[in-house]
Amino acid sequence: MILDKNNIPNKLNKFIVIEGINGCGKTTLIANIKDYLENNNKDVICSREPGGTPIGDSLRNIVLSSSKEMTPEAQFFIMSASRAEYVFKKVRPTINNGSFFISDRYYYSSLAFQSYAGGLNFDFVYNVSKEVIKECIPDITFILDLDLETASKRLNLRNENSNEKDSFESEKMEYHQKVRNGFLDLSKKLPERFVILDATKNKEQVFNEAISILKDIYKL
Ligand code: TMP
Predict the structure, then answer these.
(1) For a substitution probing ligand 1, which of 105, 110, 132 has the most ligand atoms within 8 Å of its CB?
(2) How far is CA 154 from CA 108, 117, 118, in A?
(3) Residues 107, 132: contact at Cβ < 8 Å?
């Protein structure tokens, strides 16, 4: 998707979010963007949700080990508690300091996972999340979009060398299809800026597309 150049805000937070279904390639893209920005003498902080703070990391362990035994409401409030810590202790201080902040997931994941897939009311999740994040709105969110089969193959490859699937990753295909559709739908629904990248392309192509958009936004 091409970014509408007339739709770039005056005030930039230097806040970039990467989203997508499990196995979409977020980690690689984040590492590549970080390297690119640092090679251009920019200060960059990267972190992830849920987690990113000591309390957030404890909450991450709870929710990723037992999400299937929880109601979507319980999942969402744990995600929100982690997010409240994350925004207060990491996102806002970084934005105020003028460094780049790259977040592996943000409240859009609560909409995709707990609302579109988990069945929670969209406005409920949206309104609580807005209250938690306040003014900390990303300049741009990249959604790495790909089919479930390719994503699942990538996850299996990754898990061969590490631990087993977490509780969300082991949800049924139907659940992940709803998450994928959710990301695509919310990119049309919310006023914030989304760019959908075709994550079936190789990592260089995905990176080049992301960077050409970041160059436009940040005049890099
Ligand atoms: P990941 O960091 O490996 O992508 O895993 C985080 C998992 O947590 C992933 O399966 C998505 C899920 N998640 C939610 O369900 N809701 C949320 O709000 C966030 C941030 C993550």
Answers:
(1) 105
(2) 22, 21, 24
(3) yes
Instruction: Record the pTM.
Output: 0.96
Is the shortest distance between the CB of 168 and ligand 1 below 6 Å?
yes
Q: Is 22 in the pocket of ligand 1 (CB under 6 A)?
A: yes
Which residue in 81, 207, 218 sits closest to 138, CA to CA?
218
Confidence (pLDDT) at 4? 61
Residue 60 near ligand 1, beta carbon < 6 Å = no
Residue 48 parent element (H or E): strand 44-48
Tens-place pLDDT, residues 7-54: 666 789 999 999 999 999 999 999 999 999 999 999 999 999 999 999
For residue 116, the one-letter residue type is Y
Mean pLDDT of 79-90: 98
**Max CA pair span of the chain:** 47
